[in-house]
Specification:
The protein is α/β, with parallel strands linked by helices. It folds into 2 domains: 221 residues, Medium-chain alcohol dehydrogenases, catalytic domain (Quinone Oxidoreductase, Chain A, domain 1, Alpha-Beta Complex), CATH 3.90.180.10; 162 residues, Rossmann fold (3-Layer(aba) Sandwich), CATH 3.40.50.720. Helix content is 29%, strand content 20%. It contains 13 helices and 17 strands. The strands form 4 sheets. Strands 3, 4, 5, 8, 9, 16 and 17 form a 7-stranded mixed β-sheet that branches. A 6-stranded parallel β-sheet has the order 12-11-10-13-14-15, sandwiched between helices. Helix 5 packs across helix 6 and helix 5 packs across helix 12. It is globular, with a radius of gyration of 20 Å. One of its GO terms (molecular function) is zinc ion binding. Keywords: Membrane, Metal-binding, Oxidoreductase, Transmembrane, Transmembrane helix, Zinc. Belongs to the zinc-containing alcohol dehydrogenase family. This is Glutathione-dependent formaldehyde dehydrogenase.
Length: 389
Amino acid sequence: MKATIWAGRNNVEVHTVPDPKILNDRDAIVRITSTAICGSDLHIYDGYIPTVKRGDVLGHEFMGEVVEVGKAVPNLAVGDRVVVPFPIACGACAACERELYSLCENSNPNAGIVEKLMGHSPAGLFGYSHMLGGFAGGQAEFARVPFADVGPLKIEDDLTDEQVLFLSDILPTGYMGAEMCNIRPGDVVAVWGVGPVGLFSVVSAYLLGASKVIAIDRVAYRLALAEQQGAVPINFAETSVLEALADITAGRGPDHCIDAAGMEARNSSTVVDAYDRVKQAARLETERPHALREAIMSCRNGGTISIVGVYGGLMDKFPIGAVMNRSLIIKTGQCHVQHYMRPLLDRIRNGDIDPTFVISHHLSLDDAPHGYEIFKHKQDNCTKVILKP
């Protein structure tokens, strides 16, 4: 089959690789009809995620048709149309029983590797390094889905791939970012980074009762999309974010701040940005936490910092003093996608959310390298790339 593989820093290629096979009775094989390039994939593309190896199949947002099922997968049949969540979860461990699916205790066969970096292991993920399981991803023609009796969500109506594909990751992630804020009617929410996840956080914050959502980015067309969804845009390349947020909130600060930017945030107008870029390039720190620092310094006393942008390891100059002395609440996590898929599917069916507004490009799987380039460099107004195998 054809698949997108990591071929080194800033280099992906489409190669022919072996077809996946059933390895466990709880596996299924899915013929992929739609897959996508995620902002998290760019961290791999840029070389900042450890234990990625040349030849690894990338991608964790995918859906398709079941073509084979293991003996212990009673809920799926050949021909079923499914969306696959990006965390792999067994459904039976202590974490899964609490619906903390991205923390599954049984799905990462390489837990010992990540424990050295993080203390305990999260779940295995599709297409996201060997420390997180080494599972082949979904930017391919076929994928093996472990624990298929737990993860995949059947789509049993005529909703298009484009309407439901993002249930695999970015829609639940953006929604969880807003939900973790415990928004009350009248609250003001600020979102750093309005790529697809940030855009879904904007929409979700309004669904959950926010009176005003502020979108912070430097890419004009992304800010325009956020404004179309009702957000107040701030271009951090043109104005001081802290001053603008103080003006909008009468000096109090936003009630909740969502970091949807993650480990490669930057603001070239600041000295600390240059510091972070040098240390990250030299692998002396793994993050550029500009957005997170700014969110902490902007948030009102007693407010919430919700982190759904991906971080991989260690950062410098984290303002823990501000967090502790100002009673800030930090909530974070890889999304527990299985928990959110069906409720959000219902919202899509009801017309509460139309996820298709983030899509800018449809490409063939063969064009994946081009998709990565335009997504990374914000070319051709690229917001979200869907690949068709």
